[in-house]
Structures are given as C-alpha cells and as structure tokens.
Amino acid sequence: MGPAPSILVRMRTAYHEQLEGLNTILGEMCDLAGAAMARATQALLQADLAVAEEVITDNDRMNELSARAEEQAFALLALQAPVAGDLRGIVSGFQIVADVDRMGALALHVAKVARRRHPAKALPEEVNGYFAEMGRLAVQLAQTAREVLTTQNPQDAIRLQEDDDAMDDLHRHLFTVLMDREWSHGVAAAVDVTLLGRYYERFADHAVLIGRRVVFQATGQTPEQYLEVS
Amino acid sequence: MGPAPSILVRMRTAYHEQLEGLNTILGEMCDLAGAAMARATQALLQADLAVAEEVITDNDRMNELSARAEEQAFALLALQAPVAGDLRGIVSGFQIVADVDRMGALALHVAKVARRRHPAKALPEEVNGYFAEMGRLAVQLAQTAREVLTTQNPQDAIRLQEDDDAMDDLHRHLFTVLMDREWSHGVAAAVDVTLLGRYYERFADHAVLIGRRVVFQATGQTPEQYLEVS
C-alpha cells in the first residue's frame, strides 16, 4: 500500500502542470485575438493594406495554437483519470478554444473588409469614432479574458459582461446613425458598416462567454448561480 | 477474477446507453433548430407576428435541452472511465451542444426582425425568393445534421459542406442585389437584409460544423484527413 499515495501525488502534479499548459496556450490565443483586432481596426480606420495583410497571414498561427490546445485537452482527458473539478476545467478548455478561435476569425473578417475596399476607406468619416472605440473595447475584452484565464478570479470574469454592455451601447448608437435619414454614404457603405458592427459585437460576446466559462471552471457554477449565493 | 469481465461489460453497456441518450437530446435540438428556422422564415416572409412569437417562446425549450445535454455529457465523463473513442464522442457532444444552441439563437434573431417590423414586411418583395430558398436550405441542413448524428455516417456528414456551398452562393447573390445601383428600398431595409443574410449563412455554418464533429466522432479524423485516406 506504501507507494500508492506518492504515485497519486505525482499524477496530480503532472495533471496540474498539463492543465496549466493548456491555460497558457489559451492565454496566448487571447493575446493573438486581441492583437489581431487591434491591427484590423487600424487597417480599417487608415485603409492600411500592409497591416490588413499581416492580420490575415498571422491567422495561421491562431489555427496552429487552436489545434495544439485541443490536443493538450484530449491528452488531459485521456491520460489521467480526472476528478469532477478537473473535468470542468478541461471541458471549459475545449469551449474556450472554440470561442477564442472565433474571435480570431472575426478580427480576420474586419481585416478582409479593409483589404477589399483598399485604397478607399471602408468607413465613412462619420462613423470612425464608433469603430475606434469598439476596437478599443474589443482589445480590452480580449485582454481581460486573458487575465481571468490566468487568475481564475470569478468576480473579474463576471465583469467582462459590463465591458460588453458598453459595446452593445455603441453598437446600438451606430445603428441609429445608419438609420438616420441624413445617411448620405449609400447602401454599399451601410452594408459594410452593418457587418463590421456585427463582427465587433460578436467578438465581445465571445470574450464574455470565456468569462462565463472561467466562472464555471473556478466555481462549478454559472455566473447567475454564483452571484445568487455570493 | 470471475465477475470482473461481466462488470466491465455492464459498465460499457450502461455507457453506450448514456451516450445514445446524449445523441438523442442533440438530435432533438437539431429538430428544434430546424423547426424554429422554418417558422422564423415563414414569419419573415409573411410578416406573421403570431408565428414569430411562437419561435421566440419556444426558444426556452432549446435552452432546457441544452442544459440537459451538458449535464448528460458531464455525467458520461465523470461516472465511467471512458476510452479514447468515447472521449471523442463526449467532447464532440459538448461542441455540438454549442453549435445547435447557436442555430436556435440565429432562428430567434430572424423571428425578432420579423416581429420588430410587423405589421410591415422586413423584406422588399425583390429578395423574398432568396430568403425562401435560404430558409429551405437551412432547414434541410438542420435535418441532415440530425440524421448524421444518428447514423454517424462520415460520408453523409461531409456532404453537409455541399449544401452549405449552395447557401454561400445564394448569400453572395443577395449581396449583388443589395449593391446594385437600382436598390430602391433605402438603407434601413438594406441593413435588415444584410443582417438576415448573415443569420442564415451562420446557421448553415454551424450545421457544417456539426457534420465535421460527427466525422471526428466516427473516425477520429478531421474531414480533410478522412478524405485523404479513404
């Protein structure tokens, strides 16, 4: 009976090291998604083709990391016999991969609109301020998502929702500008602005989802359950 | 040593029954998503408020099933010690929950546009045909996703991609109509059409993703890997 506990301890240690490894990859993916959205916004506002191309090329790196994260999560599931709390962490890991992957894809969409309209600017001057601010919020949300992945702090994870409320407000205001009778930039620009607005909004939604999953990783509860008891 | 194999056999049987139970819930969710999109399209084309309200109310059922599916998947992970192939099935199960959940949300978005514009029609007559056909394709994709979940047939699962190509073609044509100088329905209608087109396209994308996950469930390979060796 002697060696059993020490084997268990070693298994648990190896397990937690691997789980940290997974979270490190997920954090790196959040960084990439945030950086991609920062540059995509720059490309959009300044009609900067080189920057748009960079975002598009760098997306390969996201796909690589995404594949590595899933492999790591499968290895964690398969190699040890995880306990309930660990299972939450791993399953959330898979879901976070999907969310941050999608954030990268949305930044890519923004960059592609900038490229498609180059050398013209995709955005009428009038809405530049909205997109500059939505870009800033998006990058901030990606950064907070990255931080809570590391700290596993449920309060901070829930706070992602508040930043998203600011994004939703901006998005709504943007629509009032579009719907205004004075909109003089034509239908093609309206279509671009509509889709671009949606990309930023969805980027923010996925960051919020990451926050929700971190709450579940850390507490085993949904944010609503957690707020009710705390 | 006698009883051990029989215990294992019973564990495996219970396991497979539970996995089937999970896939049954996922199939039911696909049915719901397809039915929701069928009625949302009807509400949109006919400015039918009652049908739009039905779609919105019935979304609660989707959320219930979604929660049940996740519980079932966690129970499968936690209660037995699954082997590698089983793990693929369960993890894919979690991912499919997220996809089909999103399909339901997109049908809900369509219904809400119909409700918001009622008693007016959200769509100019000119694009009705596109949306009727996109609706038909979306419902068909949800149905095929449901079938391959049950049959686990990788060839059929891959074929979802082809139906999605038809959706992408329609979506592209829709944009040429929007961008045409002759578009006479104003910016507000263009914004609605842009977002609605995006909802149908994303609905189809998620059905394709379910197909990809079924290929992985059934073969342990991505569709690309599977096609290369088969």
UniProtKB/TrEMBL annotation, chains A, B:
Alphabetized UniProt keyword annotations: Cytoplasm, Phosphate transport, Transport
Subunit structure of this chain's protein: Homodimer.
Family matches, as Pfam families: PhoU
Keyword Transport (UniProt): yes
Chain ranges of the PhoU domain: 27-113, 132-214
GO BP terms, alphabetized: intracellular phosphate ion homeostasis; negative regulation of phosphate metabolic process; phosphate ion transport
InterPro entries: PhoU, PhoU-like_sf, PhoU_dom
Record localization: Cytoplasm
Official protein name in the record: Phosphate-specific transport system accessory protein PhoU
One GO CC annotation: cytoplasm
Similarity annotation: Belongs to the PhoU family.
Entry keyword annotation includes Oxidoreductase: no
Domain of life, source organism: Bacteria
Gene behind the chain: phoU2
Role this protein plays: Plays a role in the regulation of phosphate uptake.
Species per Swiss-Prot/TrEMBL record: Gordonia insulae
